[in-house]
Design brief:
By secondary structure, this protein is α+β, with helices and mostly antiparallel strands. Helices cover 15% and strands 29% of the residues. A 9-stranded antiparallel beta sheet has the order 16-17-19-20-21-26-25-24-23. It has a 6-stranded mixed beta sheet with strand order 11-10-15-14-13-12, with no helix packed on it. A 5-stranded antiparallel beta sheet has the order 1-30-29-28-27, with no helix packed on it. The radius of gyration is 24 Å and the shape is globular.
Length: 665
């Protein structure tokens, strides 16, 4: 087995696949700040209040009253699903979960049918891609039942894609899985399976259907020509042998979460770019420190063996052309996607947006790595709802900010602008292009707050708040927490709630609270803070993606649960954020063993929830009934009998209420 093949196999099984922490600073972590804040303020006030009440009211009466208030005030009215583990999709009673798209499904009138034994790059380019993550919906003519579905394809699992690539061998008397190196033809399939899909869908008879001859249907891939735009375009650090202009990039990779802009374009967030590059930089190359800060190269993919642009020894500037936000004009299937460099370069998790009071557009951005940062980008120009064309270059000019959380409950958004503070020539920046190429280092110098893997960040127009998903951080040390935040090795993550000053999303200051510390509340050492109305099925860990429906309600998807971590699969939970029910959570949908819950997205009328089920069946060795050795032994022989409903195909699922109506009410 080659080193890269072994890395691919190993990292695909990891709960935290972002790579090793690479933040070298001593900036304060969110754990330290939470601890300090609540030890000084919340813990004292809460303890005094509880002591005073407990003097006259029994603890059991308090719990009963809390449960009654939370149940009565909950914004969600559905019968909760039971948590568990198996190889199927499950949804709350009274709802249907219908698979809308699977890996390999035809997208065009002339697309070939999916054949896993004879898959080719040419076929894959006309079919739905692999490992669907972000899901967005863009209405056609304002309709909630006819629109464009936009879906990111984050990465590939070759051991689940290619029959016969995994062999079971005997090592030291034990069975082990060995992954063969990929051929160039298989790499080409991988490259075509990355990127995104734009596809027309229509609801007919209460069920969603793909329109295969939709004139706007399109695949975006790692071989699609793109343009660099904004401050970095044409800079020497993005010029290559293939592109001496520094303005044209081939492809996008590792698109995790994303967003849809107010003017109806699709934005894709490039996340874990480090795995695609291999080889070594020339001795003493100026990009060495820059790449180290991003974990480049990891060499998990074998693309560099077949394509020079992924080999650092041959194209040392190529990684600087990845790690950006990509904008796609869905109204023109021939448009050139644009990498919007003003929005910074890091491991982007998503790019959810909202229009501020003055018409500027605000994008919230997470850098999905342990000990990295939360960002927001505020456009210089304002959104024109009556002129779509006037908005098409808003993302090329604006101010990127990074968050600094204080223990008094305040948050400051620090501008990442050349010439301000430490972002000067003395610290190695010659201009704004350098600051943006090295966004992480710029944020380090600004002493931003080191977070526990910031993932999806969702603004809520209904209540003016912002929800930050922090998945976990197993590397947090014991000396970074105290009794008020008793979670060294934070395995389950938490959710931060931000209120911007004056309810203005473009503000540079705000307040923050911990909405939830996740994990099993029945285990005291975990320190979870779900309300007492949350059932044994309702708690969760590892918050990742999230959505706010049109009623302003929060829905949270998880990544990393499983038999060992939580005793349940990942899924979608409804989380109350207001009133007596605050911090109450209910399980609505769960995925098959080994899958990650991605999306989610609500149609404009809230009558459909679209969710993405990513890499089902991966990591199944943790489940006795799905043992890894026999799973791989069976894989090659079962492909000829492949059925469309087998759980090994990543899919987008449309959830609707039986008989019609809004979800969860």
């Amino acid at each position: 087995m080659t080193d890269s093949a072994e890395t691919r196999f190993r990292t695909s099984q990891l709960e935290e696949n972002d790579g090793p922490p690479v933040n070298p600073t001593d900036n304060r972590t969110m754990g330290e700040i939470i601890a300090a804040r609540f030890s000084r303020r919340g813990f004292l006030k809460g303890s005094l209040a509880i002591s005073a009440i407990a003097a006259t009211v029994s603890p059991l009466a308090l719990v009963a009253a809390d449960e009654a208030r939370a149940t009565e005030a909950s914004a969600f009215k559905f019968d909760e699903l039971e948590a568990g583990i198996d190889d199927k999709h499950h949804v709350a009673p009274g709802y249907d979960a219908d698979v809308l798209l699977r890996w390999g499904d035809p997208l065009f009138a002339d697309s070939p049918e999916f054949d896993p034994v004879k898959q080719s790059a040419e076929a894959q380019a006309r079919q739905f891609g692999y490992n669907n993550d972000y899901v967005g919906y863009i209405p056609i003519d304002g309709s909630a039942e006819h629109g464009l579905l936009v879906v990111n394809h984050e990465y590939t699992n070759p051991h689940l894609m290619f029959p016969g690539i995994v062999k079971i061998v005997e090592k030291d008397g034990k069975k082990a899985a060995e992954v063969a190196p990929l051929s160039k033809e298989q790499v080409d399939v991988e490259m075509a399976a990355h990127g995104g899909t734009i596809v027309e869908i229509r609801k007919e008879g209460g069920k969603w259907q793909v329109v295969r001859d939709g004139k706007l249907n399109r695949r975006i891939m790692s071989t699609t020509e793109m343009a660099l735009s904004g401050p970095v375009a044409g800079h020497d650090r993005v010029k290559t042998n293939a592109d001496p202009s520094g303005t044209k990039v081939i492809g996008t990779v590792n698109n995790c979460a994303g967003g849809v802009t107010p003017w109806g374009t699709y934005v894709m967030a490039e996340e874990n770019i480090h795995g695609y590059f291999s080889g070594e930089l020339p001795e003493g190359h100026k990009e060495a420190a820059n790449y180290k800060r991003l974990g480049i190269p990891e060499g998990a993919y074998e693309w560099g063996a077949h394509y020079d642009r992924f080999d650092l020894a041959k194209e040392p500037n190529e990684p600087n052309r990845f790690g950006w936000i990509v904008e796609v004009d869905v109204n023109d299937p021939n448009s050139v996607p644009r990498k919007r460099t003003a929005m910074g370069r890091f491991k982007h998790e998503g790019a959810e947006s909202i229009v501020a009071k003055d018409g500027r557009v605000v994008f919230y951005l997470g850098d999905d790595e342990r000990f990295d940062y939360v960002y927001k980008f505020v456009t210089k120009g304002t959104f024109n709802p009556n002129d779509r064309a006037a908005n098409m270059n808003l993302l090329d000019d604006g101010t990127l900010h990074v968050a600094k959380f204080a223990e008094d409950g305040s948050v400051a958004w620090l501008p990442i602008v050349f010439g301000q503070g430490p972002l000067t020539a003395e610290n190695g920046f010659a201009g704004q292009a350098d600051v943006l190429i090295e966004t992480r280092r710029a944020a380090d110098l600004l002493s931003a707050t080191k977070m526990d893997r910031p993932e999806d960040i969702q603004p809520n127009a209904g209540n003016g708040k912002v929800y930050v998903m922090l998945t976990n951080n197993s590397k947090r040390k014991a000396d970074q927490v105290d009794a008020a935040n008793p979670r060294a090795e934070n395995a389950f993550g938490h959710i931060i709630e931000i209120v911007e000053d004056g309810g203005d999303f473009a503000a540079t200051k705000g307040k923050w609270e911990v909405l939830l510390k996740c994990g099993d509340p029945s285990v005291a050492d975990v320190g979870a803070t779900f309300s007492t109305a949350t059932t044994a099925n309702g708690w969760f860990g590892m918050p990742d993606n999230c959505a706010v429906d049109s009623a302003g309600r929060l829905w949270v998807a998880t990544d990393g649960q499983g038999p060992k971590a939580t005793g349940r699969t990942d899924g979608l939970w409804a989380v109350d954020t207001e009133g007596a029910a605050r911090a109450t959570s209910k399980l609505f949908f769960r995925v098959p063993i080994g899958a990650e819950m991605c999306g989610p997205l609500f149609a404009p009328d809230d009558q459909t929830a679209f969710v993405a089920v990513q890499h089902p069946g991966d990591g199944g060795e943790d489940w006795e009934a799905f043992g890894r050795p026999s799973y791989y032994e069976d894989l090659s022989t079962r492909w000829p009998d492949f059925k469309p409903d087998m759980p090994v195909r990543p899919s987008v699922v449309a959830i609707t209420r039986q008989g019609g109506g809004k979800i969860g009410v």
